[in-house]
Amino acid sequence: MGTQDTKQAQRTVKLGNTGPEVFPLGLGCMGMSGMYGATDDAESIRTIQSAIDQGVTLIDTGDFYGMGHNEMLVGRAIAGRRERVQLSVKFGGLRGPDGSWTGFDARPAAVKNFAAYSLKRLGVEVIDIYRPARLDPAVPIEDTIGAIAELVKAGYVRHIGLSEVGVETIRRAHKVHPIVDLQIEYSLASRGPESSIFPTLKELGISATLYGVFSRGLLTGSKPAAQGDYRAHLPRFTGADGAKNEDVVASLQRFAQERKMTTGQLTLAWVLAKQPSLVPVVGVKTRAQLDDSLGALSRPLSKEDMTALESLVKISGDRYGAEQMRHLDSERR
């Protein structure tokens, strides 16, 4: 299928009641800045540009990915293509010169400071969707959203999003300013949002952009090997849980082969069928991975396949380590 055919064949999805229309898949760029080991900037740029040429419109980044590296990379990739994309930017993560994580800051003054640097690194005049990457426990969400709302009024931001927050925070934020989408992890391996978060979003007219659809490569058989790959510290990849999950992934691979699909296409097709009004954000580093993901759009699953998959995939272990899980607002019950 050619580029033009892909564009013409695909529907768009609206982000919430007030957000933009986007291609049914978003491109997540975090992995292009070393979170999963070595990367190649030239290939990353070609991958982003290939995604745009094939109709992808939503590009997701964060100011703390590679301490600004990711935004500068995206800025280079979208030069001359700005009008064809919507930029989703997360902010607030604090990093040390050695790459360490030192906290989170969502104070109003910090919000505007982060936005100023993001605009410069991306080489743009406005950010399409701006969102705190996490809830700052020291700052009322109303203050953070209020500061972004001032950026909207001033013309530096178009829409406001959230990331990894729970129902109460979503409601409080939405009262201050319309929220277009919540970014949340969701996959065959992580279905927690189905219970209360997704129903709340539907009630309020908010969409969701879904990251981790491959469970950081777990569901596709990828293993942490390279130095600097932070998955080596995640429960699902290590110890007894990691061993159990290898058996599940082997079964998943056989299931995919029987349907002449890759495991990536299979797990993505499940998300697309399960949540057709929401937008998966696929994290890829190469054009080959991108093309594989786009292939899922033309490979819908039957109801029988969906049921079989859900009974097959029972993943062991939490999606983050215990300390991070304790601090996730989206995991509060």
Key terms for this structure?
333 residues; alpha/beta; eight-stranded parallel barrel; two-stranded antiparallel sheet; 12 helices; 17% strand; disordered N terminus
CATH level-4 homologous superfamily: NADP-dependent oxidoreductase domain
Rg from Cα: 19 Å
State the low-pLDDT regions, or none: 1-9
Principal-axis shape: globular
Domain module tally? 1
The CATH first-level class comes to Alpha Beta
Query: What is the percent of helical residues?
Result: 25-40%
Overall mean pLDDT score? Answer: 89
Keywords: Oxidoreductase
Protein name: Aldo/keto reductase
Organism: Pyxidicoccus parkwayensis
Domain NADP-dependent oxidoreductase: 24-313
Q: Helices and strands in order, then pairings?
A:
Elements: H1 3-9, E1 13-14, E2 21-22, E3 26-28, H2 41-53, E4 58-62, H3 69-78, E5 86-91, E6 93-95, E7 101-104, H4 108-122, E8 127-132, H5 141-154, E9 157-163, H6 167-176, E10 179-185, H7 197-204, E11 207-211, H8 239-258, H9 263-274, E12 279-283, H10 287-294, H11 303-312, H12 322-327
Parallel strand pairs: 3-4, 3-12, 4-5, 5-8, 8-9, 9-10, 10-11, 11-12
Antiparallel strand pairs: 1-2, 6-7
Protein name: Aldo/keto reductase
Domain NADP-dependent oxidoreductase: 24-313
Pfam families: Aldo_ket_red
Structural commentary:
With 333 residues, the chain is of the alpha/beta class. The chain has one domain (20-326): TIM Barrel. Helices cover 40% and strands 17% of the residues. The chain contains twelve helices and twelve strands. Helix 4 (108-122) crosses helix 5 (141-154) and helix 6 packs parallel to helix 7 (197-204). The longest helix has 20 residues, at 239-258. The N and C termini lie far apart (45 Å).
